[in-house]
């Protein structure tokens, strides 16, 4: 399929052919859901933890004798039923990551790109470059393009001035092509790809 290529002044500067193999897949919410869950699980720290009975500071003395008091038998004041005692089956330090095959991850990224095309929320930029690192000029250009919530994906090498200018604008993310991922694509309303990004994504995903 063909789509127009624009510049930051909102002028059409050409056309580009988008591969149906990468940008023309049907919507698969199940695949997208699995991929987002995989990404979010993988980035969890998993450092939350509670103390077991062996980690609680305190005496090891038996609180009272086994029989004859009329009370329930107890072996330790550090047991979970006492104030300040241990916690049973509490969280432990662990990794929340789980496996997801490369084939599914690749399909999910292609599906996310295709979804933006189908929704009419994909723009192709000639180049993501800025003359200055100041935010004001770039923010005005984004406003003219009606870009409020946007992910911009450029080629392998980002323009430093463009990145500096864009990072202070709310709801605007800039990533290199190798950082393109399903979660970031879906969390922003509009996806903007440069010519370089389109070529490199197609080469990677075909």
UniProtKB/TrEMBL annotation:
<dbReference type="InterPro" id="IPR013005">
    <property type="entry name" value="Ribosomal_uL4-like"/>
</dbReference>
<comment type="function">
    <text>One of the primary rRNA binding proteins, this protein initially binds near the 5'-end of the 23S rRNA. It is important during the early stages of 50S assembly. It makes multiple contacts with different domains of the 23S rRNA in the assembled 50S subunit and ribosome.</text>
</comment>
<keyword id="KW-0689">Ribosomal protein</keyword>
<dbReference type="GO" id="GO:1990904">
    <property type="term" value="C:ribonucleoprotein complex"/>
</dbReference>
<dbReference type="InterPro" id="IPR023574">
    <property type="entry name" value="Ribosomal_uL4_dom_sf"/>
</dbReference>
<comment type="similarity">
    <text>Belongs to the universal ribosomal protein uL4 family.</text>
</comment>
<comment type="subunit">
    <text>Part of the 50S ribosomal subunit.</text>
</comment>
<feature type="region of interest" description="Disordered">
    <location>
        <begin position="49"/>
        <end position="78"/>
    </location>
</feature>
<dbReference type="GO" id="GO:0019843">
    <property type="term" value="F:rRNA binding"/>
</dbReference>
<dbReference type="Pfam" id="PF00573">
    <property type="entry name" value="Ribosomal_L4"/>
</dbReference>
<dbReference type="GO" id="GO:0006412">
    <property type="term" value="P:translation"/>
</dbReference>
<keyword id="KW-0699">rRNA-binding</keyword>
<dbReference type="GO" id="GO:0005840">
    <property type="term" value="C:ribosome"/>
</dbReference>
<protein>
    <recommendedName>
        <fullName>Large ribosomal subunit protein uL4</fullName>
    </recommendedName>
</protein>
<keyword id="KW-0694">RNA-binding</keyword>
<dbReference type="InterPro" id="IPR002136">
    <property type="entry name" value="Ribosomal_uL4"/>
</dbReference>
<dbReference type="GO" id="GO:0003735">
    <property type="term" value="F:structural constituent of ribosome"/>
</dbReference>
<keyword id="KW-0687">Ribonucleoprotein</keyword>
<comment type="function">
    <text>Forms part of the polypeptide exit tunnel.</text>
</comment>
